[in-house]
Amino acid sequence: MKYKDSFAGVDLGTPEEWEPFDQSLGIPTRDNCDLENPRQTFLWQYVGLPGVVGAPLIFPIEYWELVSFHQVLGGARLAAEPQIKYRPSTDSMLNKTTAAGEWVDAAEPDPAPTTLADVTAAQIPEDQRGELREQMLTKLGFPTGSDQVNMPVAELAERLKVNVDRLVMVLGEYGIENLTVDSVIDRVVAERLVAHMGLGAS
User: Fold this and answer.
1) In terms of C-beta distances under 8 Å and separation of at least 24 residues, what long-range contacts does 129-132 make, across chains too?
2) How many CB atoms lie within 10 A of CB 127?
3) pLDDT digits (tens, 9 = 90+) for 56-107
């Protein structure tokens, strides 16, 4: 693939004029960074640097965005398809601050991802899952006896501290389709979300 110089002749201004990386997406990767945004063009390359043990980034993401911007200002550009790719750790999937991951050959197949349901099944005794299920539903705003509650998707996004558009996309991936940011959801939808965590009704 031949890369074009998206920044040629462009006054990039300051980093503050460009959209920061959406940290609700998790660890920066080539796939979730906007390569035509100088704050993110090289951001994904600073994850899991050689010699770093533990956290995937040794400084906050905001710092590495400034480094990426600085490199673009200095003339650095993407010129070829990478020969390696970053693979997050599956052992510490619940803690992105300790899941350092590794860089592997770009052609190496990825293993099946570890899901939250897998972790739940492996680490939470079955007799405690029902209690945790009810606690999760309550936190989502659907406590026992709340069958008639209808909650705007935007409110659920606020409770989960995620971008509402991202939540609509995730719900679609869970099979809860045809939602918009103006839709409302009920306890049945909340139960389906919790079931994806391995906490379905027994």
Assistant:
1) 129/198, 129/199, 129/202, 130/202, 132/199
2) 8
3) 888 999 999 999 999 999 999 999 999 999 987 765 444 555 567 889 999 9
Is residue 152 helix, strand or coil? strand
40, 27 Cβ separation under 8 angstroms: no
User: Which residues of the chain are under the pLDDT cut of 70?
Assistant: 1-2, 90-99, 113-116, 201-202
Structure tokens that stand for 161 in this block: 């501290």
Backbone φ, ψ for residue 184 (5° rounding) = -120, 150
DSSP-derived pairing of the beta strands 84-87 and 151-152: unpaired
Q: What are phi and psi of 66, to 5 degrees?
A: -65, -35
**Token pair listed for 157:** 């996004």
